[in-house]
Amino acid sequence: MPDSIKTAIVTGGSRGIGYGVAAKLVGEGIRVAITSRSLDSAEKAAAKLNKIKEGFAIGIESDVRNLDAQQNAVATVLEKWGRLDYFIANAGVGHFAPIQELTTEQWTETIDINLTGVFFSAKASMSALADSKGYFITISSLAGTNFFPNGTAYNASKFGLVGFSQAMMMDVRNAGIRVTTIMPGSVATEFSNHQPSEKDAWKIQPEDIGQIVSDLIKMPARTLPSKIEVRPSMPPK
Question: What is the pTM of this model?
Answer without folding.
Answer: 0.95
